[in-house]
């Protein structure tokens, strides 16, 4: 799947034994008949859908762990999109997983985009066997292929699109890392479902748990939230000053 926000679970990337980014993004989810209670502040203010994924027999053969994955997708009147994932261990033994909201953003021109909020952080470079480096720039800009995991990143990140004078504000909770990916020209030509020139209008900025796995004991539940807003670039600093998303 190329575009939107694929759910990478129970594996992000190709660091394990499963297919790249896990199997959840390629599954048919069901409507959740017993969703979690709404927050009081959400009542009537958002349109939402509750989905659930349980492992099939095929899933259990390749990843032998029983789980319930509940996902709430909400859209506010202002166009803010939020996704809340809850993964519960209904197994009789612990299991570990990695996770990402693999968020594809549409941008005017990748060479005119910058990311703020990841300065001075350490990152794992997937283009060099996950070598660890420290970000040196005042902001992240793009002149070649980028595939990095920024570890222990802040909960609010901004993606500024100068040409459109628009900023995507990404807020996250329960997800310590941020993945930044653009294939650039050479790799774009090797990806079957990716146009040769599409890298110019594409940027992935993922809220993730990628450096270290999440481990759940029997009966435990993990929760991870993503909130995505588009605001005029002149207002983006106000959003970056916000300490949290809840």
From TrEMBL:
It catalyses: alpha-D-glucose 6-phosphate = beta-D-glucose 6-phosphate. Keywords: Isomerase. GO terms for molecular function: carbohydrate binding; glucose-6-phosphate 1-epimerase activity. Its EC number is 5.1.3.15. InterPro entries: Aldose_1/G6P_1-epimerase (IPR008183), G6P_1-epimerase (IPR025532), Gal_mutarotase_sf_dom (IPR011013), GH-type_carb-bd (IPR014718). Belongs to the glucose-6-phosphate 1-epimerase family. This is glucose-6-phosphate 1-epimerase. It comes from Brachypodium distachyon.
């Amino acid at each position: 799947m190329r575009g939107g926000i694929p759910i990478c679970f129970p594996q992000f990337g190709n660091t394990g034994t499963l297919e790249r980014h896990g199997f959840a993004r390629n599954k048919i989810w069901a409507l959740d008949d017993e969703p979690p209670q709404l927050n009081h502040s959400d009542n009537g203010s958002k349109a939402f859908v509750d989905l659930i994924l349980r492992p099939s027999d095929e899933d259990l053969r390749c990843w032998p762990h029983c789980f319930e994955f509940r996902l709430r997708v909400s859209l506010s009147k202002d166009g803010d999109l939020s996704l809340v994932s809850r993964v519960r261990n209904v197994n009789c033994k612990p299991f570990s997983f990695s996770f990402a909201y693999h968020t594809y953003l549409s941008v005017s021109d990748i060479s005119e985009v910058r990311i703020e909020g990841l300065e001075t952080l350490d990152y794992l470079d997937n283009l060099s066997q996950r070598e660890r480096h420290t970000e040196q720039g005042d902001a992240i800009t793009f002149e070649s292929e980028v595939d990095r995991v920024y570890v222990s990143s802040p909960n609010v990140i901004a993606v500024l699109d100068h040409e459109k004078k628009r900023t995507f504000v990404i807020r996250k909770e329960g997800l310590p890392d941020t993945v930044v990916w653009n294939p650039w020209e050479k790799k774009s030509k090797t990806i079957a479902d990716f146009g040769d020139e599409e890298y110019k209008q594409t940027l992935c900025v993922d809220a993730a748990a990628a450096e270290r796995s999440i481990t759940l004991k029997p009966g435990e539940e993990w929760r991870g939230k993503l909130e995505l807003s588009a605001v005029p670039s002149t207002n983006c600093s106000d959003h970056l000053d916000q300490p949290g998303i809840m």
